[in-house]
Write a structure and sequence with these properties.
By secondary structure, the protein is α/β, with parallel strands linked by helices. The protein has one domain: 3-Layer(aba) Sandwich (Rossmann fold), CATH 3.40.50.720. The protein has a seven-stranded parallel beta sheet with strand order 3-2-1-4-5-6-7, sandwiched between helices. The structure holds nicotinamide-adenine-dinucleotide. The site of nicotinamide-adenine-dinucleotide (NAD) has 27 residues, from helix 1 and helix 6.
Length: 264
């Protein structure tokens, strides 16, 4: 299929894990800023709603439903964007998976599933988009990490280890792509009340023998220096800033949007 538009002004974006939560909000905000936005997720129903919301902004959009952990899936998603719009200017690696599992009960299944999405698929997406951006001599990649990547969380180690992997890939990709003017940064959101966060905290309460869920959640919120959880929209604003507005000299950076939870 011939490329529809190759003008410099058009920002062509791919957002992973965009069927809900942070990914959907980032996709909508990018669309409102005039980007053409391709979205991908394993959840087709949620993704269809995201596409509907993007279309309401008048932006162009493309839906890619599928399991991002399958071999070749990240590369195929990037190829689809390039075939459709002639290039790719923005990649937001937002898709994520995590499961509560006490360290001494760790399972192969949980670890492989977590690392397959959060680390391997993310690295393959950075590679695939990075190659196109290298040839374009422009582009921005934003990887979603977590304050957990620097914490000792024995009930959530596969996830925290995977996000430490995200930090590592971000630094390596930033250096690999720096000679071509391509920027790679990451963003660590604080606690946002998304589906993923809610089910994780329910499981965490159970693992800690807590039946008083609301009290447990309130205790966790009180640990945040700003004293409240993050709004999805404000975290998305920071992601979009990295994608569109951050200065050209900023790369290999990790931006904390955690209300002071992550202070390192
Ligand atoms: N919610 C928080 O408090 C919080 C805090 C820190 C970091 N994060 C990170 O933010 C990102 C977005 O999470 P969220 O909170 O919006 O949760 P979410 O569950 O709404 O988003 C994750 C998305 O990834 C998709 N996904 C899962 N497995 C997939 C697969 N194999 N292939 C394709 N898509 C798949 C899910 O369907 C979902 O739409 C994640 O990387 C998460 O680790 C979230």
């Amino acid at each position: 299929m011939p490329a529809e538009n190759q003008t410099d002004a058009l920002r062509r974006a791919l957002v992973t894990g965009a069927a809900g939560g942070l990914g959907r909000e980032v996709a909508i905000q990018l669309a409102r800023r005039g980007c053409a936005v391709a979205v991908t997720d394993i959840n087709g129903e949620g993704l269809a709603e995201t596409v509907r919301l993007i279309s309401e902004t008048g932006a162009r959009t493309e839906s890619i439903v599928g399991d991002f952990t399958l071999e070749g899936a990240p590369e195929a998603a990037v190829t689809k964007v390039v075939e459709r719009w002639g290039g790719i200017d923005i990649l937001v690696n937002n898709a994520g998976y995590g499961v509560i599992e006490p360290f001494l009960d760790a399972t192969f299944r949980a670890w492989t599933r977590t690392l397959a999405l959060n680390v391997t698929a993310l690295a393959m997406a950075c590679k695939a988009a990075g190659r196109i951006m290298r040839d374009q001599r422009s582009g921005r990649i934003v990887n979603i990490t977590s304050p957990g990547s620097r914490m000792a969380l024995p009930d959530y180690t596969a996830y925290t280890a995977s996000k430490a992997g995200v930090d590592s890939i971000t630094r390596a990709a930033a250096v690999a792509l720096a000679p071509y003017g391509v920027l790679v940064n990451s963003l660590a959101p604080g606690m946002m009340d998304t589906e993923m966060q809610r089910s994780t905290e329910v499981d965490l309460a159970r693992a800690n023998g807590r039946n008083d869920l609301q009290a447990f959640l309130d205790e966790r919120t009180r640990r945040i220096p700003l004293g409240r959880r993050a709004e999805i929209a404000e975290v998305a604003e920071a992601v979009v800033w990295l994608c569109l507005d951050a200065p050209d000299y900023m790369t290999a950076e990790r931006l904390n949007m955690s209300g002071g939870l992550d202070k390192d």
